[in-house]
Structure formats: C-alpha cells, structure tokens
Amino acid sequence: MKAAFRQPGFGLLFTGLLASMAGDSLMLIVLAVWVKDLTGSNGAAGLTFFFLAAPALLAPLAGIYVDRLKRRTVLLWGNITSAVAVLPLLLVRTDEQVWLIYAVAVLYGVSFVVLPAALNGLLKEMLPDDLLVDANASLSTTKEALRLVGPLAGAGLFSLLGGAGVAAIDAASFVIAAGVIGCLSVPEEQPVREEGRWRDEFLAGVRHIRSDRVLTHTLLATGLSLLVIGFMESAVFAMVDAFGKPATFVGVVVSVQGVGAIAGGVTSSRVIRRVGETTAIGLSLVILAVGLAVCAVSASLAGVFVGVAVLGYALPVFIVAFNTLLQLRTPQRLMGRVSAATDVVLGTPQATSIAVGALLVSLISFRDIYWVCSTVILAAAAYLTVALGGEPQIPAEPASTDTVVGKPPTLL
C-alpha cells in the first residue's frame, strides 16, 4: 500500500478523506442510536439505514454531472454541502422531530452517491492501474480501523453531548476535508460533454455495465446478497436487546467488527493480487456467510463477537476488490455514470432489504434473520463462481465507444 502514497497528491487526498471518514464513523451509528433512544423502536432505528440507502435510486442523474465536472471540484463542494446538510440535526429534541434525522439521513445518502463516484474517477486520474488496488486498500483499511474507535466514541459523545453535539463535530470534519482537498493540485483533463441525446447520456453507465459480462454477473451476485444484507441493520438492535444490552451497545458490536475489518483491509491487496478481483469477491461472500452463521448459532456474546469479527474481515476484501474491478473495467469518461449506475443496481435491493428487515425484526428472531442472510449470500457466491468461474483478463479502455472490448473471462 505504500507505493500509492509515493504518487504525487495521494497523501494529501488521503488526509482530506481521513477527516470526513472520521466524522462518518462517529455520526452514522449515532443516527440510528438517536432514533432508537427517542422512539424505543428497533424498526424505526433500522429505517434510518433505509433513508441512507434510498438516494442511490437517483444515482444515474448524479453520475451525469459528476462526469461533466472535474472530480476534485465535486469532492471539494460535496464536502462543503455535506457539512451544511447535517446542521438540521442541531434542532432535534423530541421523538416528534425524528423526521429531521431521517431527512438528514437522505442528504447523507446523496453524499454517499456523489462523493464515491467522484473519488473513483479522481483515483483513476491520479494513479496507474497497478496501484489502484493499493489505494483502495489503504482507504478501506483506514475506514475500517475507524470502526474500532468511531462507533464507541460516537456512542460516548452521544451520551455526553447528545446527538446535536456529534452533528456539530461531523460538520466540522467535512469542512476540514474540504479545506485539505482544496489544497490538492491534480492535473485533471477538462471533462467534455458527449454529443447525443440526454437519455443516451443518462443511460451510458447502464449500457457499459450490460456490455461487460464480468461487471454484469458481479453486480447480479452482489445485488442478490444485498437483498438480505439490509436485514442486519435492524437485526443488530434486536440482537443486543436479546442479550439485555442497551442500544448504545451496538457501538461495541461495530467496533468488534472493525477488528476483523482491519485485518481484512491490511491483507486485501495481497489477497486480490494473488487470486484476482472476481475470485476475491466470491471468497469474501463465503466468509461473510460463515460469519453470519456463527452469529446465528452463538449462545453468548463471545460467540457473536467471533462471528462479527469474521464478517468484518470479509467486508473490506469485498469492497476493495469490487472498487478495483469497477475502476479497471471502466473508461475514465464514464466513471461517474458507471459508479452511479452501480449505486442504483445495488442500492435498490439494499434499500428494499432494510425496509423489509425493519418489519421482519418484529416477526422473527435475529437468529432466523441471520440464517436467511447466510443462506442467500452463499447462493450468491455460488452463482458468481458458476457464472464466471475464474479471474477475467482486464480489457483495454475503448477509445470512442461505450463498450469495453476484451478477451472473455477464462476458467482457473
């Protein structure tokens, strides 16, 4: 991962992203805990994650404008806008104002669409292809490391300062990120608006994904997993209830997940270089399913923590492999729209599963929910293995079309 930091500008970019990731690690768990504290409802707390995921449905529209603007500009103003977006939380006092938390969650979700799309394009502009996996791994490892302290610190600050206090800190983190990114000097090419109908421009990302069978099958397998992964957002509150713990104990669970995630982040680039992106994605899904099964059968918190650490390991391996695959197989001019189209393809089942999970948690036990998740994710891994069978060759970017032309995947 050190090689990426030797590239001009990456260290400064990393510093800016570190500030915003630190704020996110404090705030995201607090949003759900805050709702739980105000309403006493596990389902209402789980719905917070639904509102975070829902803006992905409008991602293609955002992708068009990300591709029309310089990526650094999008990251700069995106962080400033995000700082303003969390300020309504300063007004929340009673359960009648929970809608404000949901509204801010939606705005946060918009930033989750726009900022990663811009970042994918900027990394592709700044770094050679062989260092993208190292850059993605360093960012993922840092993000997961923050899970060790962020959720616990967020829960502690929530108890000490209240949600409004945490919101103020989060807003400040976005301002710091914007200031650092504003100092970044990157020789970006001026984006050129493509000629053609608006509808064609809007759908360019979708067409690119459909033209690439590797991306298509990977997205289908991931989408199948996300049909159930969202169940866990509500189930985790039911789980801590079952062990007689308060809602803030979710911060401890997420921190334990961070222990496994750090290990996954540190080893992800080595694993991906050894087995390839698609194989790493399949393996990470299997590991995730195993972790969920361990949580489902554990009769003690110690056993649950083992399962949580295992699934924590799988997540950064999956994220790094998936992001690297997307960057390598997408032309720079389409990076924003392909990232946005991916958000729609994946965000739709995720948002649906979170909403369904908020209902299921009141009907069946968290153990049954985890068993369902584990079974479906294993099925997704099997589908990806059968559909691709091995690691594909990365095709060259086309010069003038939206279709990537290259050798078909080969079996290991």
Helix segment tally: 16
Order of helices and strands: HHHHHHHHHHHHHHHH
Number of domains: 1
Structural class: mainly alpha
* Termini Cα gap: 27 Å
- Largest sheet entry: none
In CATH terms, the superfamily is: MFS general substrate transporter like domains
CATH architecture: Up-down Bundle
Estimated radius of gyration: 20 Å
Give the tally of β-strands: 0
Average pLDDT, all residues? 80
Summed up:
By secondary structure, the chain is mainly alpha-helical. The chain has 16 helices and no strands.
Describe the structure.
There is one protein chain. The chain is mainly alpha-helical and 412 residues long. The chain has a single domain, classed as Up-down Bundle (Growth Hormone, Chain: A), CATH 1.20.1250.20. It has 16 helices and no strands. The chain has helices at residues 2-5, 10-39, 42-53, 59-68, 71-85, 98-126, 129-182, 198-202, 204-211, 213-229, 231-242, 250-275, 277-297, 301-328, 335-360, 366-388. The protein is globular, with a radius of gyration of 20 Å. It starts with a helix and ends in a 24-residue tail after the last helix. Residues 390-412 have low confidence and may be disordered.
